[in-house]
Amino acid sequence: MTKGNINVSVENIFPLIKKFLYSDHEIFLRELISNATDATLKLKHLTSIGDAKVEYGNPKIEVKIDKEGKKLHIIDQGLGMTSDEVEKYINQVAFSGAEEFLDKYKDSAKDSGIIGHFGLGFYSAFMVAEKVEIITKSFKDEPAAHWTCDGSPEFTLEASDKTERGTEIILHIAEDSTEFLKENRIKELLLKYNKFMPIPIKFGTKEVNDPDFTPKTTKDKDGKETTEPHKQITVDNIINNPNPAWTKQPADLKEEDYKGFYHELYPMQFEEPLFNIHLNVDYPFNLTGILYFPKMGQDLNIQKDKIQLYQNQVYVTDNVEGIVPEFLTMLRGVIDSPDIPLNVSRSYLQADGAVKKISSYITRKVADKLKSLFNNNREDFEAKWNDIKIVIEYGMLSEDKFFEKADAFALYPTVDGKYFTYEELFNKLKANQTDKDGKLVILYTSDKDAQHSYIESAKAKGYEVLLLDSPIVSHLIQKLESTKENVTFARVDGDHVNNLIKKDETTISKLDEDQTKALDELLKEVIPSEKFMVQLEAMDSNESPFTITQPEFMRRMKEMQATGGGGGMNMFGSMPEMYNLVVNTNSELVSEILNTKTKKKQERLVTQSLDLARLSQGLLKGEELTNFIKRSYEMIK
Ligand code: ADP
Ligand code: MG
After folding, report:
1. For residue 101, what are the domain limits?
2. Which of 61, 345, 441, 593 is within CB 3.0–4.6 Å of 501 for a Cys-Cys bond?
């Protein structure tokens, strides 16, 4: 037996290890299973190239709880270690690795979640164990070794009588870590970190129906059928799927496989994903994965199931911020890359060149997929538009590269359920909706019901009205106006339709100068000037007599304020609601008001007309609404 000190230069790193990742103690299991997996895959490689003359077989990793003995066992059938190798890899390499890791990060431990995800390795066992044993037998023809360390820098190394190839790690669980002797806790960890690891992991056994047994059905004399019970057999309880969908070739997967994998990833998710994007690159970095577009409503903040980040099938985190462009963090799925540096802080990650490349690759890939979905089945794409537009519009706003690519598939739906790309829209509208200054005016509504009468007026002129109802649409419009040439967006209730798209034609007013003056004065007396700017317009006589509008510019600034951005425009948020009141001087009602004899009756007509205009904008509420209804009853009496 050998006794020795792991490293004399350090008094005792074990208490440090234990304290270091106070919240992340659970990762010890992932580290040990990763080592077991590495050892198994190394053996696979050696046998495949003929360097290990042993039978690889169907190795698995077993995790076993010994409640009485207060021990946790992790057993693999990998390449094992000789006594010399234990000395070298455990006492020297792994130890100095752990030491270096601690040295580097002990001060920044609180920095961010990703530190400590990887790097502490074998010695993370001491976060939960007061004593650790390694019993290992190399695939080489050498005796097995037994290493023990009780948490001081002292270790013992002796021969063991283990005969099967592989390594068994025995953790003597410390008093304060007995949670790791509970079956449910271990199961939870295995499912969190090891659900898709490449070597089968056994945790206990389970009873299943014997596949070789067919229960017999017999009939009694009355013809009643009875089937004998199925024969049960005990099998290993394998908790992981060693071959998850993302590790396969897209050509080998069907639509059901992708959907099935989605539910495997998110067992609590009952809704089907809309579509998926299979990522697969090996140059200039390695990355595989599958991203899913879930059904998304208008809410930017709902995001329960997140994208999971893996490194060689080992779960790392579900915080992919910095790796995936922000607008795509609304998606779900898996990204697996050995090239993402994991044991560094977030700020470093964001500046890392490889990570930037990964992020722009993902953006490009998503754009390409959207384009091909659009090209291959436009009808289906249109049907899904409402559920995906928020991601696409957000992407167009935040990533210029994506904005450019999105021209090919971003859709602009009309109130009548037609969908145009920008180019189609432009060609369709340019003849009828170009104003006298040569600017194309694109009309839109944010609410088909609330702005119904304005939509009707626009349609009566043969104009198309888009339905743009995302919460971020005002930002997007701003971006489109500044990128596309000679185009402006106008919400249908921004002004009277004649003013929204100004053409050269002018209508002559029926009123002479005196009548105009009289009308103006009357309106000034009745209409509250702090709420409405009165605007007299000579329009078609059958156009609505009173119309309330809110100028596009002011409304949009307010909206942009509400959804963030639009820096330095605070003044608009706090400005009172101001509306325009467009009065059609050619309408019959206006003539009638002017011809009405008593002042009192005139005022009543104006108030009533104003209220009707407010009503159609949803602006009549409370006491004013009550008064309006009372007045209306009196008028029809
Ligand atoms: P890393 O896995 O990053 O190399 P670890 O501290 O986790 O660092 O492990 C140190 C070394 O100990 C490994 O590189 C390997 O050589 C050896 N080792 C650990 N666990 C096993 C195991 N189950 N089977 C064989 N070798 C192992
Ligand atoms: Mg390791």
Report:
1. 2-203
2. 441
Same domain for 122 and 97: yes
Asked if residue 398 is part of any domain, the answer here is no
Domain check: are 86 and 37 in the same one?
yes
Q: Distance between CA atoms of 167 and 59, rounded to whole angstroms?
A: 12
Query: Mapped to the 3 state alphabet, what secondary structure does 57-123 carry?
Result: CCCCEEEEEECCCCEEEEECCCCCCCHHHHHHHHHHHHHHHHHHHHHHHCCCCCCCCCCCCCCCHHH
Do 461 and 529 have their domain in common? no
Give yes or no for a contact between 446 and 416, defined as CB atoms under 8 angstroms apart: no
Same-domain status, 320 and 282: yes
Domain count, the chain: 4
Q: Which of 29-38, 91-100, 445-454, 550-559 has the least mean pLDDT?
A: 91-100
489 assigned to some structural domain: yes
Each residue of 580-605: b (16+ CB within 10 Å) or e? bbbbbbbbebbbebbebeeeeebebb
Q: Measured over all CA atoms, what is the biggest interatomic distance in the chain, rounded to whole angstroms? A: 120
Is the CB–ligand 1 distance for residue 413 below 6 Å?
Answer: no
The average pLDDT across 237-245 equals: 96
Per-residue pLDDT at 164: 95
Distance between CA atoms of 421 and 444, rounded to whole angstroms? 15
Summarize the annotated binding site for ATP as residue ranges. 31, 35, 76, 81, 96-97, 167, 346
- Contact assessment for residue 153 and residue 10, using Cβ atoms and an 8 Å cutoff: yes
pLDDT 10s digits, 498-526: 888 988 777 788 888 899 999 999 999 99
Per-residue pLDDT for 405 more than 70? Answer: yes
Model pLDDT for residues 523-558, shown as the tens digit of each residue: 999 999 888 999 998 888 888 899 999 888 878 887
312 and 455 assigned to the same domain:
no
- CA of 56: how far to CAs of 59, 61, 80, 199, in Å? 7, 14, 13, 12
Ligand 1 site, residue 167, Cβ cutoff 6 A: yes
CATH at 588: 1.20.120.790
Q: Are residues 27 and 126 in the same domain?
A: yes
Task: Report pTM.
Answer: 0.80
Q: Ligand 1 pocket test: which of 77, 89, 133, 147 has the largest number of ligand atoms within 8 Å of its C-beta?
A: 89
- Per the listing, tokens 């995001």 go with 303
Structural domain contains residue 390: no
CA dist 478 → 214, 328, 413, 557 (Å): 69, 22, 18, 10
* Domain end point (choices 383, 402, 420): 383
- DSSP calls for 486-527: SEEEEEGGGS-HHHHS--S--PPPSS-HHHHHHHHHHHHHHS
Q: Tell which one of 7, 17, 28, 38 to mutate to probe ligand 1, the residue whose CB is within 8 A of the most ligand atoms.
A: 38
Å from CA of 31 to ligand 2 middle: 5
Q: What is the CATH number of the domain that holds 439?
A: 3.40.50.11260
Task: Residue 186: name the closest of 99, 65, 88 by CA.
Answer: 65
| Domain end call among 334, 368, 383 | 383
Identity of the amino acid at 13: I
Proximal ligand: closest to the CA of 30: 2
Q: Is residue 39 a part of any domain in this protein?
A: yes
Per DSSP, the chain holds a count of helices (H) and strands (E) of 20, 24
Residues 257 and 290 in one domain: yes
Q: Whose CA is nearest to atom 21 of ligand 1?
A: 35
